[in-house]
Amino acid sequence: MQGMDQTLKEKIKSQGMPIDAVMQQLEQFKTGFPYLKIIAPATANQGVQVWNEQETNRYQNFFSSLASKKKIVKFVPASGAASRMFKDLFAFLEGSTSFENSPFVKKFIQEIHKFAFFEDLDRVMTAQGFNLTQALATKDYTSIVSSLVRNEGLGYGNLPKGLLKFHAYSEERRTPAHEHLIEGLRYGLGKNNEVHIHFTVSPEHESGFRSEISSLLPTLQQETGIQFHVNYSHQKKTTDTLAVDLENQPFFEEDGSLLFRPAGHGALLENLNEIHADLIFIKNIDNVVPDRLKEITTKYKLALGGFLLEIQEKVFAALAGLDASVTESNLKAAIRVYTEDLGGILPESVASADLATQTTFIRKKLHRPIRVCGMVKNTGEPGGGPFWIQEEDGSRSLQILETAQINLEDPISKQHMNSSTHFNPVDLVCGIKDYKGNSFDLLQFRDMSTGFITEKSKNGKVVKALELPGLWNGAMAHWNTLFVEVPLLTFNPVKTINDLLREEHQA
Asked: With 0-12 CB in 10 A as exposed, 13-18 as middle and 19+ as buried, what is 2?
């Protein structure tokens, strides 16, 4: 067995992967991941703050008063192809569904003139000898769909979401990448009158993003007088995780190499950790809207940022006070920030302990990155939600959980999940510096026991894949977290191509 382990380690090393991490992953397949202990769902005014108009305006104004002194970065996860958006169209092309039997394809064809890529599609079809109007008249729907998704046409089936035409304006057509630049002007303007945007992209798509952005920036900067700094990074290859077979043995490719797979968005914590900023806004690439709806998004983004800065000031003052003098008065002030502003609770063992023990506990709880997460009311979307979690030290914390982290066989946990009222739209603002102005090492604040194991297919065989703790799930488990209800109108993801037909995406 020892010899097998050594051979495996040599193969792992030869493929450039970290041996200790991979051996730990192999063990995690065998042991699985524990479910988190839910105290209750976070609901309105019970973990999810609900602001009135006056409060929203106050936080918005507070942010605006400080933004010019802060380096602000928009962090946009934008990796991966958009192929899943076209699943129904591919099924139509492959013959597994017909036009008559697919309401999705019917809707796509009947309203095709409403898509922002309509003119591009017509142009590429005309170049191939049959224009879009003719194809519609002759009901040649296969040619239309093929020209959209295949590489011989627009190639949308192999492009990333960020480079698809989403919104049609009277004088231009915008991609999500373009819309994120425009959003940056509205709430990402910080120190030195600059906008910083960071896209995480797949290596094969970086040149496409660079080409799109470089074609837009000269005009945008000239018109606004604002300097943009746009950067890119890839999900690190070393964060890929080992795949195993159903017996939890390493899965080998046909060439004898070990199979490693991308470890989900939790791997992007490494990318986030390399960004130096006072505030980081995180928002998915496809959650953008036309200009006519940007005002509400901007308002709440500014307000979430202002709320974080206000809480951060209180946390910093409490920690600085304890640095100056560990007195009962300063300790009470710090405990007040933890319990009243951050929603924490003192375990009985700590509440009855001496001054030194309480101080050590409260320092550890306050000296953490902070995130404020916008939450929308649950309308049945699949994905994570906000919950109160029991920590091992007897305290509680707010966490964003995925269904896989909840023990649905436990009646109480299942009841908590069914009682959940809000949904995570990936609308975060993060404070990643400590009270002395140093950047936290974010890798020290994740909970590695909160990963996921899923089943995938490879070469016709079932393999088990391991995902790292999700970026806004276990990867931020030991951050100080606050939830705020934001309007549903601020959440407009595009999961399928027909989502672009929704009124919210019609400019």
From this structure: exposed
Q: How far apart are CA 136 and CA 369, in angstroms?
A: 55
Q: Of 123, 143, 159, at which residue does a domain stop?
A: 159
- 339 and 243 in a common domain: yes
**359 plus 433 within the same structural domain:** yes
- Whether residue 293 is found in the same domain as residue 328: yes
360-404: per-residue pLDDT in tens? 999 999 999 999 999 999 987 767 899 999 999 999 999 999 988
Q: Are 239 and 382 contained in the same domain? A: yes
Residue at 187 is within a domain: no
Average pLDDT of the residues in 143-150: 96
Q: Are residues 309 and 429 in the same domain?
A: yes
* Domain C-terminal end among 159, 175, 191: 159
Spatial distance between the Cα atoms of 183 and 287, rounded to a whole number of angstroms = 11
Question: What is the C-alpha separation between 394 and 346, in angstroms, rounded?
Answer: 8
- Decide: 218 and 253 in contact? Cβ < 8 Å: no
9 and 114 in a single domain? The answer is no
- 3-state DSSP assignment of residue 482: strand
Q: Are 234 and 103 in contact (CB under 8 A)?
A: no
Q: Are residues 27 and 106 in the same domain?
A: no
492 by DSSP, 3-state: which? Answer: coil
Give me the pLDDT at residue 217, please: 97
* Over residues 158-187, mean pLDDT: 97
Q: Give the DSSP letter string of 241-277.
A: EE-B-TTSPBPB-TTSPBPEE---GGGGHHHHHT---
Which structural domain range is residue 120 located in? 89-159
Q: Would 155 be classed as within a structural domain?
A: yes
Of 495, 502, 504, 503, the residue nearest 164 (C-alpha): 495
| Nearest alpha-carbon partner for 330 in 349, 317, 341 | 317
What number of residues does the chain have?
Answer: 507
Examine the domain organization and report whether 111 and 242 are in the same domain.
no
- Residue 421: DSSP 8-state: -
Angle formed at CA 235 by CA 78 and CA 428, multiple of 5 degrees: 50
Distance from C-alpha of 270 to C-alpha of 334, rounded to nearest angstrom: 31
- What is the number of structural domains in the chain? 2
175: tokens are: 């991609």
98: left (phi over 0), alpha (psi -120 to 50) or beta: beta
- Let me know if residue 368 belongs to a domain: yes
Distance (Å, rounded) from C-alpha 359 to C-alpha 366? 11
Residue 122 has pLDDT above 50, yes or no: yes
Paired sense of beta strands 47-49 and 43-44, if any: parallel
pTM for the whole thing?
Answer: 0.94
